[in-house]
Amino acid sequence: MAAAAVTGGDYRRGKTALFLIVCGWAGAAPHWLEAGRSLFPAITLAFFLGGFGLRAVLKQNDRLFKGGKDSAIDLMTEADWPTVDIVVAARDEENVINRLVERLSSIKYPNKQLSIWIVNDGSTDRTSVLLDELQSRFPLLNVIHRKPDQGGGKSGALNQVLKNVRGEWLLILDADAQLQDDLLKRVVFFARNNNWSAVQLRKAVINSDQNYLTKLQAMEMAMDALIQEGRLATGGVGDLRGNGQLLRRDALEACGGFNEDTLTDDLDLTFRFLLSGSLIGLLWDPPVKEEAVDTLPALWRQRQRWAEGGLQRFFDYWSILFSNQLSFSQRRDLACFFLLQYALPVVAISDLITTFLTSTFPVYWPLSLVAFSVSGLAYWKGCKRISEGPKLPAPNPLQLIIAIAYLAHWFVVIPWVTLRMVVLPKRLYWAKTIHKGSQVL
User: Fold this and answer.
1) Alpha-carbon Rg of the chain, whole angstroms?
2) Which of 61, 64, 254, 278 would staple 273 via disulfide (CB 3.0–4.6 Å)?
């Protein structure tokens, strides 16, 4: 079994407070140095963290991360394929549940080796009724109904179905997922060939043309997948992203299943797989297609949950992550990622506040400039790549500038969530993303 994490609210609150104090001090302290030395911390961090980011963006390996249509797949017999359970936790998904079941039932995979499980997680709309109707029409579909007060959120729903599945592999999907009919065979084939215990599919936005916000999220997903590839190719760590994750069931059970004491089960599971020595890979193609949120309030709710879940996992596992259980490359990767993703926004806000209070100049602009520049390069490379699925937005100069500016929302979300985690009591409320049923173009 993987080492258990300490996940009590008081422990998290104390660690978050310490993180906030350290980042606040780091952002303010250089303002009291001599003018010639005040930029030294930012320039030093820009050199090391910028080097980490640039290396991840430039280091790619298509052999590992691009699931081509290998001719060997066609030579495999029905008995050669492992058993797979497709699992979906669905709450209030009446807009997409019919389409989901119809598409999952049309996947090209031996029927004897495939089962579909959908957990109706306390829905208050017509999802429950629709699932019962669909179960009578589709023999592969199994439905489990959970009451609204059963607790555990999405993790609780997934743990409940985990007691029933018998497949060697689980494909975890969100209710808005849309898949190519040959996706399952391709991802299973490459997972087994590369000895991966888990595979995360690239997330491709299907409604990128709806408005500029959805277009920016499509670019962001391409950037994220490209950076994940680079981190893995340089000996670092790749993250599971919830929708479109293929998991080996025995590895999942060895980790204790899904953590019901966290907001982001996928990020938490990434660390528990990592600590148990289970390998996680990523595939650029084929992607899992999903909807992006289309309003700013929805984006704000979603990003708060992602930020809090991301901080929770680092605070829960921090002592183990810097032990000899991980390689030096993995520890370096996680340290650099944590500093760029979570520490930099808080330090930058502290720097900005101190600038106003002391009537001095900002001191961390070199680090922020490097971080945004590397992100711009990742946007450009990700959106220029050949890809299956919805067409990626063209990375022309204007859209790159807007996309880079869009990333600044993390410099608001991360500090706000950090402060809230210190001030407010522990909460495990899962802010559900509303799916509207967008179609692939």
Assistant:
1) 22
2) 278
Query: DSSP E strands: which ranges in 39-182?
Result: 84-90, 114-121, 141-146, 169-173
Closest CA to 65 of 247, 230, 206, 246: 230
Residue 130 lies in a domain: yes
How many angstroms separate the CA atoms of 174 and 93, rounded? 10
Closest by CA position to 392, among listed 404, 403, 407, 382: 382
Residues 58 and 97 in one domain: no
Q: Measured between alpha carbons, how far is 374 from 119 in angstroms, rounded to an integer?
A: 40
Q: Does the residue 2 lie in any domain? A: no
Tens of pLDDT along 250-266?
A: 999 998 889 888 888 89
The pLDDT assigned to 1 comes to: 37
- Tokens in use for 163? 């007691």
Per the structure, the count of domains in the chain is 2
State residue 17's pLDDT score.
94
**pLDDT under 50: residue ranges of the chain:** 1-8, 441
Q: Which residue bears the tokens 């590992």?
A: 64
Peptide bond into 286 cis (omega under 30): yes
Strand partners, 86: 116, 171
Phi (first) and psi of residue 195, to 5 degrees: 60, 35
What does the angle CA 194 – CA 195 – CA 197 come to, to the nearest 5 degrees?
120
Q: Smallest Cα–Cα separation from 382: which of 212, 211, 222, 192? A: 222
Report pLDDT for 66. 59
pLDDT of residue 146: 87
Q: Are residues 57 and 203 in the same domain?
A: no
Q: Which amino acid is at 84?
A: V
- Alpha helices (H) along 322-387: 328-338, 344-358, 365-384
Domain of residue 195: give its range.
Answer: 70-296
H helix intervals, 59-182: 62-65, 72-75, 97-105, 127-137, 153-162
CA atoms lying within 13 Å on the CB side of residue 130:
21
Q: Which two tokens stand for residue 180?
A: 């190519």
Calpha distance 103→80 (Å, rounded): 23
- For residue 2, what pLDDT is reported? 41
pLDDT at position 375 is 95
Kindly state whether residues 49 and 96 are assigned to the same domain: no
Task: Say if residue 152 is in the same domain as residue 242.
Answer: yes
